[in-house]
Amino acid sequence: MACAVQAIAFDYDGTLTDTDRPDPDVLEAIREVRLLGRVVVLVTGRILSELRTVFPEVDEEFDAIVAENGAVLADAEGVHDLAEPVDPELVRSLVHRDIPVRTGRVLLACDAEYAEQVLEDIARLELDAQVVRNRAALMVLPGGVTKGIGLTWALGNLGVSRHSTMAVGDAENDHHLLAVCELRVAVANAVDALKQRADLVLTEPNGAGIVELLRSPLVRGSETLPPRGWKLTLGCDPSGDPVQIPASQVNILLTGGSTSGKSYVAGLLVEQLARMDYGVLVVDLEGDHQGLAGRRGILGVGGREPLPSPEALAALLRHRFSSVVLDLSQHDPHAQRHYLQNIAPGILAQRAVTGLPHWVFFDEAHALPLGLGLWADVLAEGATGFCHSTYRPDTLPAVVRDAAGVFVLSAGEGAGSLEALRYVAHTAEVREEVLARGLEAGRGHGVVVSPQTRQPVTAFRVAQRISGHVRHWHKYIHGELPEALRFYFDMGDEPRVAANLREFHRHLGVCAAWTVDAHARRHDFSDWIRLVLQDEELADVIGAFERRLRAGEQHASAVRDAIRSAIEGRYLE
Q: Do both 185 and 319 map to the same domain?
């Protein structure tokens, strides 16, 4: 199983050491984990030149150093200031008040006992500066500079995501360092506020605790730890409270009947993951998720464009830790399965080394070859970060079923709804009637249950997505519907038949007013959109146009133009 921890960020004073330099056994433990391929970053409030004086070989022991509480970065590219220096006028003012001040490349440092005087001078000089405490020490930094910001710069240069990173600290100035990382660890001697926010509190103080951690199964890769600070919101429960599931270290099975909104929920989760800077690969068989492409950090590939090579796809996922929607809708099932098998070696090898992508979403999972080969192997080994979405969970291979830690069941009465309910009840070991009660509110609602996290059955109303969602849009625009499902325009001696949405749009544009009037009065247009294309939102819009025509509020030609505009805005380029 791939190790979730690819990088470790350490505070210095009070964490790695309680003296000017770490003990030899601490340095030996650091060297051991670097030999295992882990990236190690030192993040300290110390002035870089002072640190190098007392610890001359510091640059050799770490892959990067973030100094001056996030304001200075030293790595293979040299030393870089990440902010403008604090105004020298503040130094002169404090020295004039006989306050001992040390200056770094960016920050000012003094004892915490002078905090009141420092704040007075910052206010008098009208500076954009902040005061940061580190136990008995005080640092003055430009506004917005934190250890977390500095670490993000360092990790970006090293090619490691913060969601593959563990941070360890002890003091007040380590809060943001821990907050930006996937896993948050406090040494035994940490301040109470930091311990309360940590995912793990070590049993030993400073250096002894670090040695304990670095030689633990968690860092060595044989154990994982679900973070408390990263959650995905499915929606809200009947009381209005958020219903959440872990954002990592878990596998999700998303199921429900056809048209129950599974793809909508999947897109909702991907939106949130991308917003939190997780890297996600969405395997999209039907073109349901193209609405996600173009959002910050999400790139769409495939569709009507050639598919990227396996190497290019891996590179896209690695670049800036981005997410990719892989649209396979223009390829037949054999080509889809072949491509998925071809990308597995590169994607999974990269995942083992860098942690990217953190998540892989398989839409229409029942149609994919997930029971054999590398995708099955990693699940059998205990890998997490997989979401399988399907209305046919009973056809999924056992390895997928056994790996699921969270079950999300969407409400709806489409094909497979009862079978999906029974499957979740049996697999998650809950009573069918309990699940059924949670689904009584109908479409737009669901239930979640997690035997792995001991989360009871919880009903929720699905949260609103940011990006648009259009079901199977490629199929409906360019594909050929069966004859029984095509739209037949009543045009007298010259009937026209639409086998897809593009043809519907074109034929509608040349329809006589009396043809539009006849179809609209029978609500034929909205019924076809709702029942065949299964697009409830567009059907509601078109239904409103039809009602205006029947009420005499709008002429047939205006209704025709309004329907065509609605289709263009939702589907057509």
A: no
What are the φ and ψ backbone dihedral angles of 169, each rounded to 5 degrees? -150, -175
Helix (H, G, I), strand (E, B) or coil at 396: coil
Q: Among 77, 147, 78, which residue's Cα sits nearest to residue 107?
A: 147
- Number of domains within the chain: 4
Least confident of 34-38, 240-244, 511-515, 569-573: 569-573
Q: What is the DSSP code (8-state) at residue 463?
A: P
At 481 the three-state DSSP class reads coil
| Structural domain includes residue 158 | yes
The answer to whether position 467 is within a domain reads no
Q: Do 365 and 272 sit in the same domain of this protein?
A: yes
Kindly state the average pLDDT of the residues 539-564. 93
Q: What are 437-442's contacts with CB under 8 Å, separation 24+? A: 438/409, 439/409, 439/411, 440/411, 441/411, 442/411, 442/412
Report helix, strand or coil for 359: strand
Closest CA to 360 of 408, 314, 398: 314
The structure tokens listed for 548 are 């205006």
Tell me: do 362 and 222 sit in the same domain.
Answer: no
Q: Do 408 and 529 fall within a single domain?
A: no
Judgement on whether residues 306 and 181 belong to the same structural domain of the protein: no
Tens of pLDDT, residues 313-343: 999 998 877 899 999 988 888 999 999 999 9
What's the rounded mean pLDDT across residues 276-301? Answer: 89
Residue 250 lies in a domain: yes
- Residue 519's H or E segment, with its range, is helix 513-521
Q: How far is CA 289 from CA 196, 237, 329, 333, 508, in A?
A: 39, 26, 11, 18, 27
- Residue ending a domain, choose from 177, 207, 226: 226
Name the one residue in this structure whose structure tokens are 């648009």. 468
Contacts 24+ apart (CB under 8 A), 396-400: 396/253, 396/365, 396/366, 396/370, 396/371, 397/370, 397/371, 397/372, 398/371, 399/370, 399/371, 400/253, 400/365, 400/370, 400/371
CATH code for the domain in which residue 2 is found: 3.40.50.1000
What's the Cα-to-Cα distance from 334 to each of 86, 297, 340, 566, rounded to whole Å?
A: 62, 30, 10, 34
Domain match, 303 and 402 both: yes
Instruction: Identify whether the C-beta of residue 152 lies closer than 8 Å to the C-beta of residue 176.
Output: no
The string over 485-503, giving b where at least 16 C-beta atoms fall within 10 Å of a residue's C-beta and e elsewhere, is ebbebeeeeeebebebbbb
**Predicted pLDDT at 560:** 94
Do the domain assignments include residue 468? Answer: no
**Is the domain of 355 the same as that of 257?**
yes
The residue range of the domain holding 155 is 1-77+147-226
Q: Could you give the CA distance from residue 32 to residue 112 in angstroms, rounded to a whole number?
A: 37
Region of residue 43 (phi > 0: left; psi between -120 and 50: alpha; otherwise: beta):
beta
Q: Pick from 144, 166, 189: which residue ends a domain?
A: 144
Contact (CB, 8 A) for 107 and 81: no
Residues 482-505 have a mean pLDDT of 86
3-state secondary structure of 239: coil
Whether residue 126 is found in the same domain as residue 249: no
Give the three-class secondary structure for 406.
strand
